Prior knowledge:
Oligomer: heterodimer
Shape of chain B: globular
Number of strands of chain B: 0
Largest interface: A-B, 35 and 27 residues
Mean pLDDT of chain A: 83
Amino acid sequence: MTEPVIVFDRVWKSFRRGESATALRDAVPVLFRRLIRSRSANKSELDTRRTFWALKDISFEVKRGETFGIIGPNGAGKTTILSLIAGILRQKRGQIRVNGRVAALIHLSAGFHPDLTGRENIYLNASIMGMSREEINAKFSEILAFSELEGFIDTPVKRYSSGMYARLGFSVAAHVDSDILLVDEILSVGDMGFQQKSFEKIHSLTTSGRTVVLVSHYLGAIETFCERTLWVDRGQIRMLGRTGDVIQKYLDHLDLESLKRGREIGFLGSSDGSLEITGVDFEDGAEEEKTEFQHGDDLVIRVMYRAHKRIPRPHFSLGVSDGRGGVLFLASMIVDGETPSFIEGEGVIACRFKRIPLLPKTYHLWGSVRGSRGFGDIIDWQVWNSFRVVDDLNGVLKKNGKSSITHTRADAPIHVPYEWDFTGGTRK
Amino acid sequence: MAITKVLNEIIEYRELLWNLTLRDIRIRYKQSFLGMAWALFQPLSLMVIFTFVFSKVARIDTANVPYPVFAYVGLVPWQLFSTGLMAATTSLVSNSSLVTKVYFPREVFPLAAIFSKLIDFLVSISVLFALMVYFEVSFHRTILLMPFVLIVQLTFMLGIGFILSMGNLFYRDVGYIMNVLILIWMFVTSVIYPIQTNNALAQRILLLNPMTPIINAYRDVLLYGRVLNIPEFAPAVAISLGTLLSGVLWFHKAEYLFAERI
């Protein structure tokens, strides 16, 4: 069980950018320039400029039977790692050892041809993934049943919807027998029902004793399936370790990034120049400016403004969002009808949210100002500032058993105190 | 050794090779009304045109064989050669989504491209027999040697096919050049007339092109009942084998660059 099946030993991978020509017309001048430059300029300096290092000094091992996660932002090198394992690319430096047959669920419909029927494509795609005719014959009905495309199997796939296309691709790939399975961002295939099904399928694959390398932006999947996780960023290893620890650090990092972005807000003003928001800051109950709060703190928002003319009955709205659509809670003068009778010159409007029920994460403050009677945007709805809630999770959710970090933080940012009641007995 | 490694990989992926070949054949005839009959269109129509030209404009010595049959026996292998090579040339680029996203030996692309044209060849050859009956050309036992000639032709085609597919991947110009080159190549090969000059040196140079001995060999075994002309054919076999060997080795050496340079 402990024998490594994938070994990366100080692997570097570079891509050339710029002048690699695919037409002779371009190749000739490039050749000329190289000839001239190799005499005048320093060649290695030129090479450095043209080389883009997609992976820098990556080392890790995946053991037999392990489910291994890779996370990181777009362009971090996740897919490059998978392509190297699959043998599609070759490293520039370092050693890679892979023992066993590799099946890649990377680009599910790469092998599909639009003019062929679903049936023909199943055979073609399965043999692309290394299955023999007997294996495909044996699994055909299983693949077909999984794809739920029984009625369309003899239709050319060019008549399929994109969802059907993806379902067929996933079904073939998920039934390939291999020692090592590479999975790249394929959990968002099809409708909700099919997604659930493919999720379960991946789950059963990971528990069937084969080695799985999973790349996903969906941290919930990584957390559910992977024992260990590698976090890469700009081609380098940021962290490698137990999935829970890595995800926690990764989320912290994302939060900080998002906080930085949220606070880099430029000028906020109305289009006619009558009103400017000169500053927005946060305080807790103790009138101290801060950007980090604890679960259960009061959140006081102070909006500094400069009105260049008298504005009667401005309607301010302030909402807190966790980065997804909509806001979690809102204070709006449009709703409650309380407004200052007018504003003019410089001033401050403050709003206190009491005992915020938020879990540790970065939050964005959205705001808008509308005219008298609540119509017409003076300043339209946009992000004004960001703050974080930092807390020891266990302090808030002190429950028995293991707490899942991603579920609480990513899926449910608001914590409402609750109690279970088991006194109702069990219904037979 | 590299060559055994390549062979083993191709054997391991024979299923895929077969399926890709099948795919290319299916796609070609899928939405066409006449289907396979189109395989006959090119050699038959060229046969009619050249028969007209060479009966009105210039006479050709075809040694007792009616000119249409003589031309057809040249045109059918030539069609295999030209369509197979063109398909092989573009095979890597037109499968770029597979090249960049799935791993398997890339040799299967030019192989499948060329093999898929074999079906057209078989259809056309069966029509040849009908033509031979119609023009009262007698059949000879040497016809059994034809598969051997075909294998030599495929050997040569695969060798250049590997090199051209790779060339076209790095420089698309290769495809455009081949369009023109194939046409010129046909006229320096004994496709529609025998290649003969009085200049011994020129003759030797023209015979360096293995396609002339190969097409001559088809005529020998199919029409004239002659066993192969060894002094002419043996060098063609050697050149074909050499081409295949260097093609495979070169292809194998550059293979790892395909995904990032396509």
